[in-house]
Every structure is written in C-alpha cells, then in structure tokens.
Design brief:
about 20% strand, 10 helices, serine protease, about 35% helix, 2-enoyl-CoA Hydratase, Chain A, domain 1, 2 domains, about 450 residues, Peptidase_S41A, Pdz3 Domain, 6-stranded mixed beta sheet, alpha+beta, signal, globular, single chain, hydrolase, 6-stranded antiparallel beta sheet
C-alpha cells in the first residue's frame, strides 16, 4: 500500500520536471523570438535611414559607398582591428602577405610632399636602371607626383609584370632631370635581412609574410657559411618596429629555435575553438644563444615570437615593452566585394599570458638615446590607448619607445646584445663596465 503514493509522487515529480522543462523551452524560445524581432526592427530602421538618404540627401549619393560605409562602421565599432576591405584594399593586403608583386623594386618614402627613394632593391628593374638612394621622383608616366599620397604613388609604380613605366627623377648634383623607362618585374618583399658580425649573426625581420621563415632559414645558413658554424657564438633577432603579419609564419619562426613545447594558443568565444600550436624537433641554430630585440613598435606576430622564446627561456628579450596587440584577425573573403577582417580570437603565450593591451616586458630594459628633436615623438601609444580595444584586466600598459638609431654604432640595444653574447660585462643601461666579465655575462645569455 505504501508503494502507491511513492509511485504517484514519482510520477508527479517527473511530470512536474517535464512541465518545467517545457516552460523553460517556451521561455527560451520566446526570448529568442523577441531578440530576433528586435534585430529585425533595427534592420528595418537601417533600411528606412538608407531610403531617406537615397531620396532626400542634397546630392545623389553613391549607394554602394553608403553600404560600404555602413559595413565598415559596424566592424570598426567592434575593435580597432576589425574592418571592411573593399576589393582594392583586399588585393593590396594579399600582395603584402604574399610578399611579391609586379613592380620596380624601389623603397620610397614621403618627404616634404615629394616621393624620395630610400634605396633600390638589388637585382630589380630599379637597380638595373641606375635609380639611386636619395633620388626624388617628380613624375610617373608624365603625371606629376606632387599632391599624391605615398600609397597613390606606389600604386602608380606597381602594375602587371612586363608592362612599362616612365619615371622622371631629380638627383642631387645633377642640373637636369633624368628620364628612365623601366619594365616591371616580379618583386619579392624581403622581410628578412642579415649580416655577419665577426662571431655573431644579426637577423632583422621587418614583417611576417609568406617569405619570412624561408628568409630566416637562408639567413642562418648564410651566416654559418660565412663564419663557420662552430665559430658562431650566437644570434640577435631584431623584431623592433615589426608590426606583425601572418600567424603561421610567427609559429614557424618560433619553431626554428625550439625543440619542443607549446608556441602559442588561440582562444575564441567558445571553448571548443581553442587551438594550440606546438614546436617540432629541430633547432636551426643547434642550441646557440639567442637574443631578441623588441620595442614599442613590435606587435602581434612579433610578440608571439618574443613571448614563446621568453617563456621557454630560449632567448633573452632586450629593449622596451612591446605594443600589446594580443588578438587574432581572420580574413573572410566576400567574393568580388572584397573581404572583412574580423577579430576572432585572443592569443596566449605558452605560460598562458595574454599580452593584449599589456605587451611583452623585456628581460632587460635598454633605452636608446633619442635625439632632442625626436624626444616625445619616439613613444608609441600602444594597444591600450586605442579606442575600443579589447580589455584585459586592470593592469593594462601604455606605449613605449620605438626609436632605433639609423647608425648601428649609436644603437645601445643592439650593442648591449652583441656584448652580452660575447661575454662582455654590461649594465642594464647598455653601458660597458670598466672591467670585462665574460663569465658573468655568459650566465645571462640563454643556453
């Protein structure tokens, strides 16, 4: 007799739970429907505004530009690194990450409203035609460059391989302008430059494009060939003012110095989106000491490399605090309409650090001496100063110095690295002590 009410109680509880679950689903569905309805109302509002602009604006607007501006506004409102890329911007971005394009092979800058040649790249149409550092380009295909932006001038010089372009150039010491006809060729952006320094290797990485790891590998091989692998005491990897680039290249560069362990992890909105990237056996430097130089202009992929080598104690990090861009952007093509760059994840160093709006602090802070005319202008504001940046707790950091002296002899950060690898005793300001202390410095150098 006692079992009956218990059974009934059980049935009631079960029925009650089922009713509760049904009601919860109803509430959830109702909430979702309400949210969707509100979203549709907002989209209708957008449509109403769009129609008003089309019909009543003082001049007939470009409707495609209106749509592009609306999309860009939506994306840029998320964070500083999400944006819309129109078809041209998307092509330009692909050129940058691919690391090659049809062009002339000239590094240029804007100076006093004129396009000035920084240097011609070896074995390119520009170098073969005799273009020199310091030349000023005054016209491209008879069109004056005065009034053009640097990007506009660069676009005019780039073009299809084997097509021709005419440049008018003024050169210091020459009274008459030079007119050169050049044939465009495939130009490869050299993201890695290197040189041998008596018993050390110096490798400068300016960006992370598709050519970067191959450039690093070739540089290490060339340094070993020049000096003899057994005579190389170590390597300086210069990542100062490197704005970043491709994630896979940052992973490959880190892997070049590591035998094992995690390099970086990326974590999106959902837990199942977490990805971890690990090193594979094989250190290209055979365990030689490595020093990495960073500053306030080192961002994104540069910080991934510095963070991975720092956490694994594979390298000593020298310089000033890095920029602090700890987010990952995914490029999503939109067919013929360009693409969107969307922030999809944060990245974390092997120890689990997020450097978003914090940056990488060097193991040894060394400041370069900034000329009086540049003081106050050498500071980068850093990720933490960008409007709408992804937050990262209360200990966010501002920018730091990004000045690099053009003359290596005045580069305290670089010379500190050289001295440390050679076992010369130096203090944290980058000044040599009176007495050399090879043993002390060797203990600071990474093993």
């Amino acid at each position: 007799m006692r079992k009956f009410p218990m059974l009934m109680l059980g049935v009631v509880l079960g029925a009650g739970a089922a009713t509760l679950a049904t009601n919860t689903r109803l509430l959830s569905t109702t909430s979702a429907n309400a949210a969707a309805s509100d979203t549709y109302r907002q989209l209708n509002l957008f449509g109403d505004v769009f129609e008003k602009i089309r019909s009543d604006y003082v001049e007939k607007p470009d409707e495609s530009k209106l749509i592009e501006s609306a999309i860009n506004g939506m994306l840029s409102g998320l964070d500083p690194h999400s944006s819309y890329l129109d078809a041209k911007s998307f092509r330009d971005m692909q050129v940058q990450t691919r690391g090659e394009f049809g062009g002339l092979g000239i590094e240029v800058t804007m100076e006093d409203g004129l396009i000035k040649v920084v240097s011609p790249i070896d074995d390119t149409p520009a170098s073969r035609a005799g273009v020199q550092a310091g030349d000023v380009i005054t016209a491209i295909d008879d069109d004056p460059v005065q009034g053009l932006s640097l990007n506009q001038a660069v676009d005019k010089m780039r073009g299809a391989v084997n097509s021709q372009v005419r440049l008018k150039i003024t050169r210091k010491g020459s009274s008459d302008p030079l007119e050169l006809k050049l044939t465009r060729d495939v130009i490869r952006i050299k993201s890695v430059r290197s040189r041998s320094e008596t018993d050390l290797g110096y490798i400068r990485i300016t960006q992370f494009n598709e050519q970067t790891f191959d450039g690093l590998k070739n540089s290490i091989e060339q340094i070993n060939k020049d000096l003899g692998a057994d005579k190389v005491k170590g390597y300086v990897i210069d990542l100062r003012n490197n704005p970043g680039g491709l994630l896979d290249q940052a992973i490959a560069v880190s892997d070049a110095f590591l035998e094992r362990g995690e390099i970086v992890s990326t974590r999106g909105r959902n837990a199942d989106e977490t990805q971890r990237y690990n090193a594979r056996p094989g250190d290209l430097t055979k365990g030689k000491p490595v020093i990495v130089l960073i500053n306030g202009g080192s961002a994104s992929a540069s910080e991934i490399v510095a963070g991975a080598l720092q956490d694994h104690k594979r390298a000593t990090i020298i310089g000033t605090r890095s920029f602090g861009k700890g987010s990952v952007q995914t490029i999503i093509p939109l067919g013929s309409n360009g693409a969107i760059r969307l922030t999809t994840a944060r990245y974390y160093t092997p120890s689990g650090r997020s450097i978003q709006a914090k940056g990488i602090d060097p193991d040894v802070q060394v400041m370069n001496e900034v000329p009086a005319e540049l003081k106050g202008k050498d500071e980068t504001k850093g990720e933490a100063s960008l409007k709408g940046h992804l937050k990262n707790g209360d200990d966010e950091q501002g920018g730091s110095s990004a000045y690099v002296p053009p003359d290596p002899k005045n580069d305290k950060q670089l010379n500190y690295a050289f001295d440390l690898l050679r076992g010369v005793k130096v203090n944290d300001a980058g000044n040599k002590a009176k007495e050399p202390g090879a043993g002390d410095a060797a203990q600071k150098a990474p093993n």
